[in-house]
Amino acid sequence: MARHAVLAGVGGYLPKLIVTNDDLARSLDTSDEWIRERTGIRQRHIAGADETAAMMATEAARAALRRAGAGPDEVDAIILATSTPDQAFPATATRVQAALGVARGFAFDLSAACSGFIYALAVADGMIRAGQASGVLVIGAEVYSRILDWQDRTTCVLFGDGAGAVFLHAAEGPATPDAPGVVSTHLHADGRHGDILYIDGAVGQRERPGTLAMNGAAVFRHAVVNLAAAVEEALAANRLDRSAVDWLVPHQANRRIIDAMGKKLGLAPERVVVTIDRHANTSAASIPLALAEAVGDGRIRPGHLVLMEALGGGLTWGSALVRM
Ligand code: COA
After folding, report:
1. Which of 44, 17, 48 is nearest to 279 (CA)?
2. Does residue 214 sit in the same domain as residue 271?
């Protein structure tokens, strides 16, 4: 019997502390005007000492389970996308598993930078289809504030912290564009461009935990080209016209990239979920956080077709098409 994955609930967590552009401009040679015009960002949430990746991920997961009307006993897998785990191991996913009181199944972290949530969703979808898991928490959780060089105005103004989660469960029958569920996912990577967005160190390198380094203009160019192709690919694979898409929930890296993808789909601006103004770029957390917001306020409703896309360090990129 064919199986597919249904998105049963979504939730998010944002740190309590809000840092505005003006706050940053007090200690950095930048301005609210520059940041808003180039990126669309007005503010970001920054994690406090107690707001670890595991803590935020757990809160987001609890919210997703609540929305799904599911208990921890229905979770048999946790896949957590992050570039900023609290520890190299154990995986942050296992910390979440323990905090939720889940003592069965499996849990692991996945590293695909800002595309992490799309990658994790694709892996979870595949495992559900294959019968390897039936209730999967897919989480993106990031504390980029801990890997930023706060003296580097070309990178530190762009990112924020947070976590988002979805709960997927198995349903009978094949995935189709008309039935609720994950319709398709498409993943890509091109390691030749690994040096345009990376962390210049690691836990394994003594005295060099690393900070984020980026060639912003190069990333921007790749994002526009690759994400446009990813959108086309998702539609073509399902023989859908762009008019079938009700909502675009894009990775939130730059308002100009988001607007370009909305235009590509011919979507009215109000059909594109935008959180970058308030959240900045929360990497793997940005899509589930945006989804949680738009589901929570009633914009995205059951039956709507949602297209998600992201590009990040690696380079990695991809898309997911989901009927809610
Ligand atoms: N405040 C003020 N000035 C700044 C600044 C800041 N925070 N950051 C950079 N500048 C300056 C630069 O030093 C440069 O000055 P110069 O011309 O005197 O050298 C000038 O602003 C223009 O910089 P540039 O890098 O050309 O700006 P841009 O229009 O390309 O915008 C980004 C920069 C980073 C906003 C843009 O390239 C971008 O969003 N790229 C994609 C990044 C991304 O998405 N990363 C995550 C992927 S998941």
Report:
1. 44
2. yes
CA of 216 to the centre of ligand 1 (A): 6
* Residue among 248, 120, 234, 227 at smallest CA distance from 177: 234
Query: If we measure between CA atoms, which residue out of 169, 145, 185, 168 comes closest to residue 56?
Result: 145
- Pick the last residue of a domain from 130, 145, 172: 172
Residue 111 shares a structural domain with residue 196: no
Ligand 1, atom 34, residue with closest C-alpha: 216
Instruction: Report the atom number in ligand 1 closest to the C-alpha of 113.
Output: 48
Question: How far, in Å, are 220, 253, 272, 311, 317 from residue 281 at the CA level?
Answer: 14, 5, 16, 12, 15
Q: Do 185 and 86 have their domain in common?
A: no
Distance 253 CA to ligand 1 centre (A): 12
Catalytic residue numbers read: 114, 251, 281
Q: Do 237 and 220 fall within a single domain?
A: yes
Q: Could you identify the residue written with the tokens 């394994």? A: 204
Q: What is the mean pLDDT of residues 250-262?
A: 96
Range of the domain at 217: 181-323
Total count of domains within the chain: 2
Structural domain ending residue among the three candidates 107, 137, 172: 172
The predicted-structure confidence for 126-155, as pLDDT tens digits, reads as follows: 999 999 999 999 999 999 999 999 999 999
pLDDT of residue 203: 74
3-state secondary structure of 231: helix
288 & 221 share domain: yes
Q: Which two tokens stand for residue 296?
A: 């929570």
Q: Are strands 181-189 and 316-323 parallel, antiparallel or unpaired?
A: antiparallel
Confidence class of residue 191 from pLDDT cuts 50, 70 and 90?
Answer: very high
Q: Which tens digit of pLDDT belongs to each residue from 289-301? A: 999 999 999 999 9
CATH number of the domain within which 215 lies: 3.40.47.10
Q: Are strands 106-110 and 77-81 parallel, antiparallel or unpaired?
A: parallel
The predicted structure's pLDDT at residue 209: 78
Q: Do 128 and 223 sit in the same domain of this protein?
A: no
